[in-house]
Amino acid sequence: xxxxxxxxxxxxxxxxxxxxxxxxxxxxxxxxxxxxxxxxxxxxxxxxxxxxxxxxxxxxxxxxxxxxxxxxxxxxxxxxxxxxxxxxxxxxxxxxxxxxxxxxxxxxxxxxxxxxxxxxxxxxxxxxxxxxxxxxxxxxxxxxxxxxxxxxxxxxxxxxxxxxxxxxxxxxxxxxxxxxxxxxxxxxxxxxxxxxxxxxxxxxxxxxxxxxxxxxxxxxxxxxxxxxxxxxxxxxxxxxxxxxxxxxxxxxxxxxxxxxxxxxxxxxxxxxxxxxxxxxxxxxxxxxxxxxxxxxxxxxxxxxxxxxxxxxxxxxxxxxxxxxxxxxxxxxxxxxxxxxxxxxxxxxxxxxxxxxxxxxxxxxxxxxxxxxxxxxxxxxxxxxxxxxxxxxxxxxxxxxxxxxxxxxxxxxxxxxxxxxxxxxxxxxxxxxxxxxxxxxxxxxxxxxxxxxxxxxxxxxxxxxxxxxxxxxxxxxxxxxxxxxxxxxxxxxxxxxxxxxxxxxxxxxxxxxxxxxxxxxxxxxxxxxxxxxxxxxxxxxxxxxxxxxxxxxxxxxxxxxxxxxxxxxxxxxxxxxxxxxxxxxxxxxxxxxxxxxxxxxxxxxxxxxxxxxxxxxxxxxxxxxxxxxxxxxxxxxxxxxxxxxxxxxxxxxxxxxxxxxxxxxxxxxxxxxxxxxxxxxxxxxxxxxxxxxxxxxxxxxxxxxxxxxxxxxxxxxxxxxxxxxxxxxxxxxxxxxxxxxxxxxxxxx
Length: 748
Known about the structure:
Blueprint: E1 3-13, E2 23-27, H1 36-39, E3 45-47, E4 49-51, E5 55-61, E6 66-69, E7 72-77, H2 82-88, E8 95-98, E9 112-115, E10 122-126, E11 129-141, E12 144-150, E13 170-172, E14 182-189, E15 199-210, E16 217-224, H3 225-230, E17 233-234, E18 240-247, E19 252-257, E20 275-280, E21 283-292, E22 301-305, E23 311-314, E24 328-334, H4 357-366, H5 398-407, E25 416-417, E26 424-425, H6 426-434, E27 439-443, E28 449-453, E29 465-466, E30 477-479, E31 488-493, E32 502-507, H7 509-514, E33 522-527, H8 533-546, E34 553-559, E35 569-578, E36 584-600, E37 605-612, H9 614-617, E38 621-622, E39 628-629, E40 640-642, E41 671-675, E42 681-692, E43 695-698, E44 711-714, H10 722-727, E45 745-746
Parallel strand pairs: 2-3, 29-35, 31-33, 38-45
Antiparallel strand pairs: 1-2, 1-14, 4-7, 5-6, 5-36, 7-16, 8-13, 9-12, 10-11, 10-13, 11-12, 14-15, 15-16, 17-26, 18-19, 18-24, 19-22, 20-21, 20-24, 21-22, 21-23, 24-25, 27-28, 30-34, 31-32, 34-37, 35-36, 36-37, 39-44, 40-43, 41-42, 41-44, 42-43
Helix pairs in contact: 4-5
């Protein structure tokens, strides 16, 4: 079985095609498809791909939270892809109409468009969105014409389009916006039997187009989605100004506005309770506001009511408000639950910012400029213009980021975004939030943005492994990484206006004495969203514990069957891999993938990895063992009984809850013991034959019939099978041994 590779460029295609999104697939030989009419019924596979990258790479460094993903370069043969000249090399675009009424992103009014021109029919481009206008629905309205419209055509996304005097309301018949268009490398089997059953191998955004040979070929320079985040800036257009009048008697501030947003985002959609969070000089206040134009002129002013005079956080408000005259003022956003909202009902797609780490990252990534109203780009699009990371949700691993946030164990309850005067780099902000959590934003092999963490152990039930037959390297490179350790960690926290942040420092005294002179290494971090010292102390201890010993790194090339992502923990088995006792021959040793290089051509497909041998540092990690309570019904027998669903687990997955049913901690072949409700053993050496729902069937009759309220749990270490010994934590003896084995460490 072979494959055909192709690239897709957002907005380049044919909106009349109905089988798929109509985006053209530029490939090197459509004729290679054994059933082209079935695989490509719309004829959107186009010959013309001349060269495409033979390697894609990605890496992560958890020490500083930095990650990288390679950019790509594609070359298209223009003489075979004539349409591309018209689409990609057009410098002038003719305006065919103007939008005369706002086109929202959703709702009934988003299905019709009001424009200045009659006779429109077909595909058009409004800002970054492709729309299809049905000319047969034309109706005359005041000042123009109304049509039925189909939104988000040719792989584009729905956006709100205002029609104000200063807005981009021009409609074109050709794609006039190319920068930042999504580009995907896809693969389809040559003998595929269904239409458009493609696998996405990589996604990025279009950066530049060149033609080195006068038009014979076109070269596309494509950045990764990760680079898109690194280049993004937020808070450029937030509300800001200067205190023109500070009236102590009325206890309010009159603000002369100096930016493009005439009112704050907080409260902007509310008829009443218009509140926003402001930094005024060195003070952070929450105030009611209203807009007005004073009699003496036509300049725009905002009046902020600061009654009662209560600081939201940070330095107290002066008793004499006139001291605030001429102070700079700007809107700030917070994760505090009492921070202002832009909606009557607070949700994941409204202000205030979420304290949940995963939801917060998604809000920052996927929010789009939508006039401060919840946007169309997924469940976390707040639509706040100045906070718009504007990464298309199709480029984001939403479920993976939420799962990471659920498991991380902390929340950003006191984060303030925008305390600084200057705009904020989105990539740097996310990196600053993630690094203290031993986490980083990375890009998957399919081009999706996700968050990974420095882990010692794969998720419960994950059987990811690489065995000797999959390893192509003749020799496996080992790097002892001798001095990659940390003896001091300093974390600043509690960042508030007008006040110095708190600082907590932890030192690894043993590591300090062991390191050679001049090799002492410290980590300087800030946790901008956490003010609780006990939480910061926990993070500090975790970092010191993590980097007490340098973690060895190995490198190897593997077959394409060993396909794993950055951040995955896999089990390695190979006779040449060193173990902790200096012997060679690792069996199911845990390794964390920190670098991935995928090389593929028509002849071969090779995956090369750099891996941290976390299993050498923490070889005996495990989970707290499962338990179950025998249910009252159905009536148990000596070999069949049912346990309750959630006596010892919750329904939410997490590090300390790796499964959502008590029975999920048990497996066929496990050896159990039975205790009464007081912990007295009633039966031992019970082996599981099968599990159906919450019902457990044993291979033979237990020595005591389970009774309602009895407890079942794994047998003692010596009686347990190897799979149980690998997964669960057992209490070691006084000599710090489990039989003849080394003890384990609790995972969390």
